[in-house]
């Protein structure tokens, strides 16, 4: 099966991208396209700009990446209790190209942050609103206190969180239909 994975951050040191990469190590036997939001940077969304210039080609390209995938692995970064500006702008543009842009693809939705809530606010927001855009959220995982519980060489190092993550990923993989 083919997957699409990304972190909802444009930081070159994104902890959410690190979590996605670590998670993808469990996806042996699957072809997963890990993309970077920096490759989809578009002008700030506005209805005036949309009316004047239409939709950027990058918005169509992003929707196409979702369309050709069989499943999605996403980890959202949290800025001020919500999506990052980079992700929100992308989200705004692609929702104008196709309101149901997630296309009911099975989704593993994750978040992490340096704080103890692990991006819980953005996770709550996404779980509330993504289904309105065609998301089929199968499993979720939030990693609190990233810098305490994650090591770049070893991945998740706190035993209980590692176990929760593995169980979540395995449940997700078991629900994918070949």
From TrEMBL:
<keyword id="KW-0560">Oxidoreductase</keyword>
<dbReference type="GO" id="GO:0016491">
    <property type="term" value="F:oxidoreductase activity"/>
</dbReference>
<dbReference type="Pfam" id="PF03358">
    <property type="entry name" value="FMN_red"/>
</dbReference>
<dbReference type="InterPro" id="IPR005025">
    <property type="entry name" value="FMN_Rdtase-like_dom"/>
</dbReference>
<dbReference type="InterPro" id="IPR029039">
    <property type="entry name" value="Flavoprotein-like_sf"/>
</dbReference>
<protein>
    <submittedName>
        <fullName>NADPH-dependent FMN reductase</fullName>
        <ecNumber>1.-.-.-</ecNumber>
    </submittedName>
</protein>
<feature type="domain" description="NADPH-dependent FMN reductase-like">
    <location>
        <begin position="1"/>
        <end position="143"/>
    </location>
</feature>
<dbReference type="InterPro" id="IPR050712">
    <property type="entry name" value="NAD(P)H-dep_reductase"/>
</dbReference>
């Amino acid at each position: 099966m083919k997957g699409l994975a990304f972190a909802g951050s444009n930081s070159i040191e994104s902890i959410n991208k690190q979590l996605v990469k670590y998670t993808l190590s469990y996806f042996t036997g699957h072809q997963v396209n890990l993309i970077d939001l920096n490759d989809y940077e578009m002008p700030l969304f506005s209805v005036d700009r949309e009316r004047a210039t239409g939709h950027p080609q990058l918005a169509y390209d992003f929707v196409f990446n979702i369309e050709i995938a069989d499943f999605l692995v996403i980890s959202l970064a949290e800025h001020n209790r919500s999506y990052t500006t980079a992700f929100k702008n992308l989200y705004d543009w692609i929702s104008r190209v196709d309101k149901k842009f997630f296309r009911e693809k099975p989704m593993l939705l994750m978040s992490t942050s340096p704080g103890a809530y692990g991006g819980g606010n953005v996770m709550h927001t996404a779980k509330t609103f993504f289904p309105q855009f065609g998301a089929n959220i199968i499993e979720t995982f939030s990693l609190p206190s990233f810098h305490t519980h994650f090591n770049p060489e070893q991945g998740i190092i706190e035993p209980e969180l590692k176990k929760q993550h593995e169980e979540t990923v395995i449940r997700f993989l078991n629900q994918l239909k070949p």
